[in-house]
Amino acid sequence: MLILLYFILTISLYWGAKWGYQKTKKVYFSPLLIAPCLIIIVLTVFHVSYASYNDGAKWLTKLLQPATVALAIPLYRFFPILKKYLSEILFSVFLGSMMSIIAAFSISWLVHLNKSLISSIIPYSITTPIAMGISSKIGGVPTITAVFVIMTGIIGMIIGPWIIRLFRFKSEIARGVLLGTSSHGAGTSKALEISHAAGAVSSVCMVLTAIISFCFSPWIYTHFLH
């Protein structure tokens, strides 16, 4: 019974936050920010352990992977556009992905974080299910990685549109590359608010970023951390 209750609680809080975001369009009402905070408050007030809560919520976590696969729908719809700009997209995503990995490693090394924390932070710009897998593979802590992924998504949702306005990005391709490469699923959600074309490009960039990071993160761990 409690498992079902935690499951319903999570969905209710998420949809409530989503309704608030759709009504206000204010980033501080983003479900990524509001729902986790409310869940933490509820668990703390009622003294519920995370293990007990996760018995019900883990089924939603398992849906992250098929949800990521579902992003192939806009890819199919806008395939001609993606094919036309494929080389530009690949170069931009590769450069952005490598900069992300190098920046995470460099900053973590400069502030003298231990190897486990560095490994947890490196995949911060990848969508959650893949980032947690990479983190586990290179010796990180997946739960810490998930926190940094969420933080990156929220920051990307805030800063991304501001950068687009500041540099006057007119191209839907450029907008999609920016948001998808830097802030994964949250950025893709914001890109879809801008236009379907930007959302499709962002989806591609999010997947490509995950593939590139999956290939290079273990190499960086082996040569610089191990």
From TrEMBL:
Recorded topology in the membrane: Multi-pass membrane protein
Annotated signal sequence range: none
Keyword line: Membrane, Transmembrane, Transmembrane helix
Xref: Pfam families: LrgB (PF04172)
Subcellular location: Membrane
Transmembrane segments: 6-21, 28-51, 89-111, 117-134, 146-164, 197-221
Protein name from the UniProt record: Uncharacterized protein
Source organism: Siminovitchia fordii
